[in-house]
């Protein structure tokens, strides 16, 4: 569904989420696996597995699996349960005038207009 409005904040395109049951079941199963790996990591830390070389690598691997599992959960949730919405935004000025202007092509004197340069560096949309 799209609208013809072009004012700031109008919804340009709205596609509802699919909300499939298979994705919900997959998220629940991945969350259960996440809890198991978090418990295993916590148990390993309390038990002192990280004191040996192989135990430390094992804990690092378990921590990596925890974050990869969390990434799959978030990706499934974003894809299946969040709507795709595009809104109209204000156009911003391009960044080329912040870095080099035509009067500065040959370089600038050191210290000349230093306060203006600081203001342009801090606030890129500063107007003369």
N to C succession of SSEs:
EHHEHH
> What is the averaged pLDDT score?
80
- Strand residue percentage: 5-15%
Shape: flat
Within the largest sheet, what's the order of strands?
1-2
| Helical percentage | 40-55%
Unreliable spans are: none
Give the termini separation.
Answer: 43 Å
Major β-sheet annotation: 2 strands, antiparallel
Count of individual beta strands: 2
Number of helices: 4
Cα gyration radius (Å)? 26 Å
Structural class: mainly alpha
Can you tell me about this structure?
InterPro entries: DUF7318 (IPR055742). The chain crosses the membrane at residues 21-46, 58-77. Keywords: Membrane, Transmembrane, Transmembrane helix. With 128 residues, the chain is mainly alpha-helical. It has four helices and two strands. It has a two-stranded antiparallel ribbon. Helix 1 packs antiparallel against helix 2 (53-81). The protein is flat and about 65 Å long. The model has no long low-confidence stretch (mean pLDDT 80).
Short overview:
With 128 residues, the chain is mainly alpha-helical.
Summary keywords:
single chain, 128 residues, mainly alpha, two-stranded antiparallel ribbon, 2 strands, 54% helix, 7% strand, flat, membrane
């Amino acid at each position: 569904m799209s609208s013809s409005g072009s004012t700031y904040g109008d919804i340009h395109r709205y596609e509802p989420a699919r909300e499939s049951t298979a994705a919900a079941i997959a998220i629940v199963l991945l969350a259960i696996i996440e809890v198991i790996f978090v418990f295993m990591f916590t148990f390993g830390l309390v038990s002192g597995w990280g004191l040996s070389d192989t135990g430390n690598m094992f804990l690092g691997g378990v921590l990596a699996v925890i974050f990869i599992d969390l990434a799959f959960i978030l990706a499934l949730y974003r894809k299946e349960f969040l709507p795709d919405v595009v809104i109209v935004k204000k156009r911003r000025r391009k960044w080329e005038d912040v870095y080099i202007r035509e009067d500065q092509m040959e370089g600038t004197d050191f210290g000349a207009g230093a306060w203006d340069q600081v203001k342009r560096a801090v606030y890129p949309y500063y107007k003369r």
